[in-house]
Structure formats: structure tokens, C-alpha cells
Design brief:
The protein has 17 helices and 33 strands. Helix 1 runs parallel beside helix 11 (325-343).
Length: 549
């Protein structure tokens, strides 16, 4: 007798809301074999984002603020993949897996959308090309290394003006992320300059640029003003009511025309709706999904949205719930309880939460806090900040590691080892034997290839299953550009006729190469025309968001 299909609860997103929903559902449905909890995340770990500035400042080791999702959510099916499309009519979700080659389709009975926000730095000319975001663990790790590299360069730079540029750091954005990152960077550079004597003789600058009249707008004016005074006492230059008009390789240009020469620009603004949401049929406003007070998506059965993805009415205070971690975590738990109630024929409960307050650090052993109506500043607020986030760290292992890092920070200088994780060779190279397939028709294109030695054939399988040879490629020629330029699956298979050595380019590097030269574009367009399927044959489906960097 065939077993009845399991009810699948599909959670999209591995952030605070998604992980808390999965963990709560696992606890509620642990003994129910008829339900499958499935979480999709583009990373295989959960990162505790409030501590990213301390990773940048070398107070905490990067891996100590992450938890593998598979270990955190035991009993939950975890898929490491990028969400591409939500088909509400078919009740399916399209994913591209960790190998970036195949589109996978997952059906759902209950769908939880917890994709969060993305960053769009294109609003300010040059910001995407020349600034450093601080959104995830990779950003924090890269920024940490970048700052240390600038200090190393400044210590051997003979030109005074260039040395000042290398030692000037600009933080764009005066919200919590911008203030905390700027404060930590300032403390870090100030604390380690003694190890760079020639750079120390010049000194450093850290400039915080904010477009509003006051930093930390979410706090009461008294606390925000206290935070600004403390930052300025510690040497941070705070520019309010000032916008960055343009970012260049040499620094930033402000709205009033002033130029700041800087080798490091950290951008903490530019949050943008997730493209999967904006490209879907979900009811939305400004890229956030419209939901009722129980987090049910308006007009859709079995579809829920939480966290930064949702425009959730704030039942307690009016307006909408802010996109913060404390709200997202609690929304994840409540949506899990509501889904459990729906499966059992119960009634969903509204999300009611007024917030516990706001915390921010503004430098070493100094912070500001607005908690349950109380205003706290100075060392007590800093201690409260650390205590709260230490308790909220998921997992005993992470708590122990972070606790040890904080203890060591009291007695020992910061670890300023610059961990360069790049491979020795910047270009990828690969070797294939005769008869081996390099790319396969129908796969998602992720690389471009130039043949160093050997010969390959390009073949296409038609609708009738017959194989047609389209071309041969030999040393000095290339292949793989069609899928990357058109944003579609591979249109043909490339198979080795002899042993072959190739140089490979990632999708991002290839698009940069083509975008920088009209000659390359013309050559590749001609090759694409030659490789296009005949007019009578079906064209491969276009998946433009897969091909975009």
C-alpha cells in the first residue's frame, strides 16, 4: 500500500525569521511523520548579524558567530540553494542548487517567505564598484582584510598625500549598522596603529556621513546626541544632513561638491526588496509582501510572510513592524505556531509585540540603550548590549567561542593577521580527458572557457533525441558564452575529442570582460548567432535572474 504524501512546509530564507520558524516548527511537529519541514537558504550557515562589526574590528573570529543550519535545525530538511521564482498558481518554487547548474522545483502545502532584503548600491554612482558593504559574513571578513591591507600599504607609502588617503575611512549611513561599524573601525585602527609606526606618524581619519539631521534616528534625541558626542570625542568626524553624491576609486564626492580622498568607503545604506518578491505575483507594497496581523499573505491560502520580507501591521503601536532582528525572530516563532494551528484545524493568533528597546555601541566600553522606557548610556549600556546579544546567540558552542574572544580581547592586543584566502592562481584552470563532457545541454551556465590545448566538439540534442554536431573548437578558441550572455540554460553539450586544458572565467568575471570591450561583445554575438537553434526548434527558456551577477 502506497504511503500518503507528506505535508510539506517550505521555508524560504535562512535568516532570523526563517531559522526561528524552522526551529519552532520542529519542536511542535517533532513526532508527526506526516509533515516535512523544508528550509531553503543560499548559505549553509546562520550568521548572527549584530556581531558583524566586531568581526570587522578583530574582536571576534569570523566563524564564531555562525552556526551550520543543518546542526541548528536538526530534523529539518535543509537545501542550500538560491530561490529563483515562486509559482503561486502551481504552488511550487524554483531553485538553483549549490552546484549552480540545475533548476530544481519544490512543491509546497504551506509556504513561509522569509527572504529578507538585498542591497542595491547602484543608486549612487560608483558605490557598487568602489564601496564595501557590510551585509553578511563574507562582507565582514573582506572588510577586515581590506582595512589591514590599507594599514600595511600606508606603512610603506613614501608620499604623504597618498598615505593620508590610505588612512582615511568613510562610513556611509548613520543608522545602527553604520554607527556601530564606524565606531568599531575607529577603535580598531586607533588600537593597532602602534604596530605600524610610519602610518601612526600620519594618523587616521574616520568620517561618518549621514543624510538625516541626527544619527540613530530610532533612538530618543537625547541618546542620539550622546552617541554623536562620544563618537566625536573619540575622533570620529560626523557629517549630518550630508549626502554622498558619487563614489570613485579615489574617495567620495559629497552633495555640496566637497571631495574626501579615501581608500576605504563602507556603505551601510541601500537596502532593497528581494528580486524574487518584486518579480512575483505576491501582493506587495514597495517590495514587501502585504500580510494580515497573523502573517497570512493577503488573498492566498497557505502562504505566509515574515521578517524584512513582510509589511506586517503593528497591532500594538500602529503602523508597521520595523525590519529588525528582535521582531523577525518572534515573527518566525509565531508563524510556526499559526501554521501548526492551521494543520490541526485551530485558529491563527495575531502577532503582538511592542519591542523591547534598542541598543547600540559607539566605541570601546561605551553604548546607548533605550529599553522598556529607560534611557541608558555609557559603560552600563555597553555591558547591557553585550549581555543581551550573548544570550541571544544560538547554540552553546557559539556562546563559548564568543565569550572566550571577548575575554581575550581584555588581556591581549587584537589579532591583526590578514587572512588572505585567495588561491595562488587567480585564473581557474582545468584538465579534461578525451570523451569527457565539460558542459551539458540544459545546465545553468556558470563559467566561460578558453581552450589552451586540445579539441572539443559542440553538439546539440534535438527534440527527437538525435544528436547534431554544431562545431569543433581548438586551442585559442572559446565556448560557454551563450548561456551567460542570454541568461538561459546551456543550449548545447561540449565534449572533449582529445585531452583538453582550459582556462575558466566565472560568470561575474566574464560579464565584466564583455562589458568593458565592444570588440569582445561583437565576437561573442557572432558566435551566439552561429550556435542558435534552428527557427523551427523550441528555444531554451530564459532565466535572466540566474545569469545576472
Amino acid at each position: 500500500m502506497q504511503a500518503a504524501p507528506r505535508t510539506r512546509i517550505l521555508i524560504l530564507g535562512g535568516g532570523f525569521a526563517g531559522v526561528s520558524a524552522a526551529m519552532r516548527l520542529r519542536a511542535l511537529l517533532r513526532r508527526d511523520p506526516a509533515v516535512e519541514i523544508h528550509l531553503v537558504s543560499n548559505e549553509n550557515y546562520f550568521v548572527f548579524q549584530p556581531l558583524l562589526p566586531e568581526v570587522v574590528a578583530c574582536r571576534i573570529e569570523p566563524t564564531h558567530i555562525v552556526n551550520p543550519i543543518r546542526q541548528l535545525c536538526r530534523g529539518v530538511v535543509v537545501t542550500n540553494a538560491e530561490v529563483q521564482r515562486i509559482d503561486l498558481a502551481a504552488r511550487t518554487v524554483e531553485l538553483v542548487g549549490a552546484d549552480a547548474r540545475r533548476v530544481q522545483t519544490l512543491g509546497y502545502d504551506q509556504l513561509v517567505i522569509a527572504l529578507g532584503l538585498t542591497m542595491d548600491l547602484s543608486r549612487i554612482p560608483g558605490m557598487r564598484e568602489h564601496s564595501l558593504p557590510i551585509k553578511n559574513l563574507g562582507d565582514a571578513f573582506h572588510l577586515r582584510n581590506h582595512v589591514l591591507q590599507r594599514l600595511e600599504e600606508a606603512d610603506v607609502e613614501p608620499d604623504e598625500r597618498q598615505r593620508r588617503r590610505l588612512l582615511t575611512f568613510v562610513a556611509v549611513g548613520g543608522g545602527f549598522s553604520g554607527v556601530e561599524t564606524g565606531a568599531e573601525l575607529n577603535d580598531m585602527v586607533k588600537g593597532v596603529l602602534r604596530f605600524f609606526p610610519r602610518a601612526a606618524a600620519t594618523g587616521h581619519r574616520l568620517i561618518l556621513v549621514h543624510s538625516q539631521p541626527r544619527i540613530l534616528n530610532e533612538l530618543r534625541p537625547e541618546l542620539a546626541d550622546f552617541a554623536r558626542r562620544k563618537l566625536e570625542q573619540r575622533g570620529v568626524e560626523v557629517l549630518v544632513e550630508t549626502r554622498v553624491r558619487e563614489c570613485t576609486a579615489g574617495g567620495v564626492i559629497l552633495g555640496d561638491g566637497r571631495e574626501i580622498e579615501a581608500a576605504t568607503v563602507v556603505c551601510t545604506v541601500g537596502n532593497s526588496p528581494h528580486p524574487v518578491i518584486t518579480g512575483s505575483a505576491l501582493p506587495q507594497e514597495r517590495g514587501r509582501v502585504l500580510v494580515d496581523e497573523c502573517m497570512r499573505v493577503q488573498g492566498l491560502s497557505g502562504v505566509w510572510a515574515v521578517g524584512d520580507s513582510a509589511l506586517l501591521p503593528d497591532v500594538k503601536r500602529g503602523g508597521y513592524c520595523p525590519p529588525t532582528a528582535q521582531y523577525a525572530t518572534r515573527q518566525g516563532k509565531r508563524v510556526a505556531e499559526n501554521i501548526h494551528a492551521a494543520l490541526r484545524g485551530g485558529k491563527a493568533r495575531p502577532f503582538v509585540f511592542g519591542g523591547l528597546g534598542q541598543l547600540a555601541i559607539v566605541g570601546h566600553q561605551c553604548g546607548v540603550a533605550q529599553v522598556m522606557g529607560l534611557m541608558i548610556s555609557g559603560r552600563l549600556a555597553w555591558f547591557l548590549w553585550r549581555t543581551v546579544y550573548f544570550m541571544k546567540l544560538p547554540g552553546v558552542r557559539a556562546k563559548i567561542r564568543v565569550g572566550i574572544d571577548w575575554a581575550l580581547d581584555v588581556f591581549f592586543p587584537r589579532d591583526i593577521a590578514m587572512l588572505d584566502v585567495r588561491r595562488t592562481e587567480r585564473l581557474g584552470r582545468a584538465h579534461y580527458k578525451a570523451g569527457e563532457v565539460i558542459i551539458r545541454q540544459g545546465e545553468i551556465g556558470d563559467r566561460f572557457y578558453i581552450i589552451e590545448s586540445g579539441e572539443v566538439e559542440v553538439v546539440r540534442t534535438g527534440p527527437d533525441g538525435a544528436e547534431q554536431r554544431l562545431a569543433a573548437r581548438k586551442a585559442g578558441e572559446s565556448f560557454g558564452e551563450v548561456a551567460l550572455l542570454r541568461g538561459m540554460p546551456r543550449t548545447a553539450t561540449v565534449r572533449c575529442l582529445t585531452p583538453v586544458d582550459v582556462i575558466t572565467f566565472s560568470r561575474e568575471d566574464f560579464r565584466t570582460l564583455v562589458g568593458s570591450s565592444e570588440v569582445f561583445r561583437v565576437v561573442f554575438e557572432q558566435q551566439m548567432q552561429a550556435m542558435s537553434p534552428p527557427a523551427g526548434e523550441p528555444q531554451p527558456p530564459q532565466i535572466s535572474n540566474i545569469a545576472s551577477p
